[in-house]
Amino acid sequence: MKLCIFGAGGVGGYLGARLADAGHEVHLVARGAHLDALQSDGLRVESIRGDTVVDLPATDDPAEIGPCDGVLLCVKSNDTFAAAADMGPLLREGTAVVSFQNGVDNEAWLAETIDESHVAGGVAYIFSTIGEPGVVEHTGGPARFVYGELDGRHTERIEMLDDALSATEGVDAVLADNIRVELWRKFAFICAQAGMTATTRRPVGDLRENEASWEMYRRLIEEVCAVARAEGVDLPDDTVSEWLDFAEELDPGMYSSLHYDLTHDKPMELDALNGSVVRHADEVGVEAPMNEAVTAILSPWAAGDD
């Protein structure tokens, strides 16, 4: 396949390197010092599942790449609209644009700019980040990528992507029958993990040891599940207990990308996470006081991004 990784950071860089090692034609879209390093020294992935170095074409201009079979969108949710506006040269009839981003709104946001027929959904379960320009560090998580058409159909293009990812070493690939369920499942966890580690500025181990904090963590998950079900998303009954059990096993020193962005003066995805829960809750008439609290506490910091 000819694939564009739009946003070659922790998630995108990992995917791009693995797909290139599997023999696919991979192009990277990046910017700044990271782009400079990719162009001069290639992309290095330092991973618990094996290191690799690949020399891939990298640019900040999608017109240099041209039409692709698939675009894997891995930018921060804050950059979704800007990415969509630049995506035209990458698209032809049948091109799939798969969002591997945080949140449940990115697919709708994409469809506001590009034809919705291109848009598919995805979920990434991986702990990876840019360690330094040109270097992606994969430190944990299953490297599990779930994807699917928004209407649940197994189209030729999504099966092509599934074949590519399933045969790629270092990637656990899952073609979902209902990607909306998968999007909301992850959303429930990330809103709790991100919201609590950012507002308290403490790692998950400290949250587990504090009864009030751990109760709020649980309620954040419950609220997201309630909103999802009110929107008609058929989440599994054990979603709350599943994520609490998962969080119990996390390294006690683990934070979140939202906490990292807060403490490093970087743009925060608050609007796509807890802020999104509040909006969706209001639309379906569900109470979400814990997510409202997180949004209120972090909003002054997020507003400082502008």
UniProtKB/TrEMBL annotation:
Its EC number is 1.1.1.169. Residues 4-151 form the Ketopantoate reductase N-terminal domain. Residues 178-299 form the Ketopantoate reductase C-terminal domain. The keyword NADP applies. Transmembrane segments: none annotated. GO terms for molecular function: 2-dehydropantoate 2-reductase activity. Pathway: Cofactor biosynthesis; coenzyme A biosynthesis. The keyword DNA damage does not apply. Belongs to the ketopantoate reductase family. NCBIfam families: apbA_panE, PRK06522.2-2. This is 2-dehydropantoate 2-reductase. It comes from Haloarcula japonica (strain ATCC 49778 / DSM 6131 / JCM 7785 / NBRC 101032 / NCIMB 13157 / TR-1). The lineage of its organism: Archaea, Methanobacteriati, Methanobacteriota, Stenosarchaea group, Halobacteria.
